[in-house]
């Protein structure tokens, strides 16, 4: 059996093409039932997300050209899309390449944002749909389980998902760098911009215990308090509250500095030099850059946050290189396990081994039989071989049966009994 | 003892390499190897020191060879404690190469002659206490130094917004700050008791508490500087960068106390 993967992703096709090819859950199961015929196309599953549509199939050996043609015409028919519209965006991978591709997809190495966690869930969903459609068999079962294992290994052994890459999450990231843990920290929100709100939410989810909200419009502040707790503080007298805050997240629509150096200096005596992290999400800026130069005060504006995001992406890419090595070695392991499952060679070896025994025995005893005509000699050999074949037949049948049932244990014990290793 | 020390060195080198690699690659399996070989090296090292003591019949802190080896041992112990308390493995990447170097030099340096003729002093029970306490104080101040450097490196990156490779690998500012403070308090306590026992020993010998010996003067300066550092830290005036610079400066004084005094003579000739 050979594994073939055909599809498009965010790199090969624009969104206009991907959205036309996308499958809903229902379309997925139905489509699979029509596509998989059990002859040429034995097994199949469809991974359909906003970034990719991929059909993974197990095909009968030697019929992959035919199989591939069927998959592409299936895509065209079921999506009611002329082939020439998406043909040039399609890629196809066979066997080791297909396995590599699937491993990379599930490990989030092929994602738009390397290390994003959703894609594994999407692969899992695709698999359960294939089970529902009854098109996941021996090969795909094995492949998908191995895929999950690889994704898990990549996640735990590399830092591919370690550093955040979204702007709103940066407050958490920087906060951990400064304060170690967010537990018990006080967050002060100045203004109520969407980004700032999102950052504050991340901080509160991360363990920050107190939320102070200062807004020129107190009604808006109260609305936020209703949504996720905290206290409204006086926008015009911020200094005493600033003194308590570990994080100050600022986003107002003002075009001047709201958090001024004078305000922070006023709060300094009360802070006793405790560090503070200012995050200015507004453009034009609302926090005086001079604050960033004061000791123990750390100020980040939007550009700075972008720089951390960029640095984190670089860090993820570095980790991704190590993840690729893991994928490579796992592909090799998978190929090996697949070969071990393929019993063709094992059956041939068993038959040959028994026939060889018969021939050797005949050679050994040949002298005692005296002179024989060539016909007689051939008859004796035929007799021996057919006896051996009759004896080995039930064994081979049992091997075939265990193979179909994926019963690796019985297969192995049969091999052991007859001493066949590969 | 030399072969034992060679085995110790080998274990430390393995630990140092794995620790540095783990620092760069952030791999847990490397850390495990580093921890195991470090623990092995430490046990062997302890055995080597005890063997030295038993075989030579004096506390193993008389000759340069012995002091270097002992210093390496205290550094490993200090790193182990920090690791246990703060999980700050980054410290190992800075400490372990130095430990290797000290052990290596300790192996190269030849032993001197009989200690009593070398120093003209008769060791009493106070000697081991005096020296051991001070060596652990040095190790604690080394930890303050490394933590301060980590603080400065990281604070610089945060202030300048140049988020390089170091940024992702060092413990948080709060953690290094805490390591520095705790180690400074520990170091100062050890230094205080160490100096006190020294004075006690000295007065028992010739009735004088103070000899105006370079080592004594430097030790007093060191004590004063760390005392200031801790006072400032506890009143929270000098947190962060300035305190970190003080941790670095303090260590320069420690180095003067340890090595400088040796070059300037005085009666603290050993170690």
Structure description:
The complex is a heterodimer of chains A (422) and B (271). With 422 residues, chain A is α/β, with parallel strands linked by helices. Helix content of chain A is 56%, strand content 13%. Chain A has 16 helices and ten strands. In chain A, helix 5 crosses helix 7 (138-157), helix 5 (96-106) runs antiparallel to helix 13 (302-341) and helix 15 (374-404) runs antiparallel to helix 16 (408-418). Chain A is elongated. Helices cover 79% and strands 0% of the residues of chain B. Chain B is built from nine helices and no strands. In chain B, helix 1 (2-25) packs antiparallel against helix 4, helix 2 packs antiparallel against helix 3 and helix 7 (173-206) packs antiparallel against helix 8 (214-234). The two termini of chain B are 20 Å apart. Chain A binds chain B through residues 157, 159, 162-163, 174, 176-180, 272-275, 292-293, 295-296, 298, 300, 304, 307-308, 311-312, 315, 322, and chain B through 25-28, 154, 158-159, 161, 163-164, 167-168, 171-175, 236-242.
Which features does this protein show?
heterodimer; A: 422 residues; alpha/beta; Beta Polymerase, domain 2; Rossmann fold; 6-stranded parallel β-sheet; 4-stranded antiparallel β-sheet; 16 helices; elongated; B: 271 residues; mainly alpha; Four Helix Bundle (Hemerythrin (Met), subunit A)
Question: What would you say about this model in short?
Answer:
The complex is a heterodimer of chains A (422) and B (271). Chain A is an alpha/beta fold and 422 residues long.
């Amino acid at each position: 059996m050979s594994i073939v993967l055909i599809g498009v992703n965010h790199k090969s096709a624009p969104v206009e093409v991907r959205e036309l090819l996308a499958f809903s859950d229902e379309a997925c199961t139905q489509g699979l039932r029509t596509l998989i015929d059990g002859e040429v196309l034995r097994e199949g599953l469809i991974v359909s997300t906003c970034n990719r549509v991929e059909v993974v199939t197990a095909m009968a050996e030697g019929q992959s050209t035919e199989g591939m043609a069927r998959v592409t015409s299936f895509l065209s028919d079921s999506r009611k899309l002329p082939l020439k519209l998406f043909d040039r965006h399609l890629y196809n991978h066979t066997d080791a390449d297909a396995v590599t591709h699937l491993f990379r997809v599930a490990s989030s190495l092929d994602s738009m944002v390397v290390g994003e966690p959703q894609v594994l869930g999407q692969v899992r969903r695709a698999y359960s749909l294939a089970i529902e459609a009854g098109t996941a068999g021996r090969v795909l079962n094995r492949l998908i389980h191995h895929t999950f294992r690889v994704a898990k290994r990549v996640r735990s052994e590399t830092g591919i998902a370690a550093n955040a890459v979204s702007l709103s999450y940066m407050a958490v990231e920087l906060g951990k760098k400064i304060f170690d843990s967010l537990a018990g920290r006080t967050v002060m929100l100045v203004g109520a911009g969407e980004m700032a709100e999102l950052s504050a939410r991340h901080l509160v989810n991360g363990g920050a215990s107190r939320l102070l909200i200062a807004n020129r419009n107190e009604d808006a502040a109260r609305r936020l308090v209703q949504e996720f707790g905290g206290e409204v503080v006086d926008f015009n007298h911020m200094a005493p509250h600033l003194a308590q805050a570990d994080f100050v997240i600022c986003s107002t629509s003002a075009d001047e500095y709201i958090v001024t150096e004078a305000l922070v200096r006023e709060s300094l005596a009360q802070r006793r030099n405790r560090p503070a992290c200012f995050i200015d999400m507004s453009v034009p800026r609302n926090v005086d850059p001079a604050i960033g130069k004061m000791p123990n005060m750390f100020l980040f504006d939007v550009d700075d946050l972008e720089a951390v995001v960029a640095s984190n992406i670089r860090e993820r890419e570095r980790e991704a290189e190590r993840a690729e090595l893991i994928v490579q070695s796992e592909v090799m392991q998978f190929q090996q396990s697949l070969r071990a499952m393929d019993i063709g060679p094992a059956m041939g070896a068993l038959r040959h081994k028994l026939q060889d025994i018969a021939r050797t025995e005949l050679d050994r005893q040949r002298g005692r039989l005296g002179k024989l005509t060539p016909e007689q000699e051939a008859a004796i050999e035929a007799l021996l071989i057919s006896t051996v074949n009759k004896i080995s037949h039930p064994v081979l049948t049992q091997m075939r049966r265990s193979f179909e049932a994926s019963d690796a244990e019985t297969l192995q014990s049969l091999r052991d009994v007859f001493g066949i290793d590969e | 003892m030399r072969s034992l020390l060679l085995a110790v060195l080998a274990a430390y080198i393995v630990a140092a390499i794995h620790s540095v690699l783990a620092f760069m690659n952030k791999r847990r399996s490397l850390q495990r190897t580093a921890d195991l070989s470090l623990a092995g090296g430490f046990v062997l090292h302890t055995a080597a020191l005890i063997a030295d003591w038993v075989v030579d019949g004096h506390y193993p802190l008389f000759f340069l060879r012995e002091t270097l080896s002992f210093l390496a041992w205290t550094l490993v112990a200090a790193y182990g404690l920090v690791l246990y308390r703060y999980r700050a493995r980054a410290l190992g990447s800075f400490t372990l190469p130095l430990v290797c170097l000290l052990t290596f030099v300790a192996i190269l340096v030849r032993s001197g002659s009989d200690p009593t003729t070398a120093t003209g002093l008769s060791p009493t029970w106070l000697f081991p206490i005096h020296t051991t306490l001070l060596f652990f104080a040095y190790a604690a101040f080394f930890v303050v130094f490394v933590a301060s450097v980590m603080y400065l490196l990281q604070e610089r990156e945060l202030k300048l917004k140049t988020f390089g490779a170091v940024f992702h690998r060092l413990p948080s500012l709060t953690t290094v700050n805490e390591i520095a403070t705790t180690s400074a308090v520990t170091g100062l306590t050890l230094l205080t008791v160490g100096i006190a026992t020294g004075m006690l020993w000295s007065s028992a010998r010739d009735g004088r508490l103070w000899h105006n010996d370079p080592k004594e003067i430097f030790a007093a300066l060191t004590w004063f500087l760390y005392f200031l550092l801790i006072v400032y830290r506890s009143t929270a005036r000098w947190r962060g960068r300035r305190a970190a610079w003080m941790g670095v400066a303090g260590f320069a004084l420690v180095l003067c106390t340890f090595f400088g005094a040796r070059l300037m003579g005085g009666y603290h000739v050993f170690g």
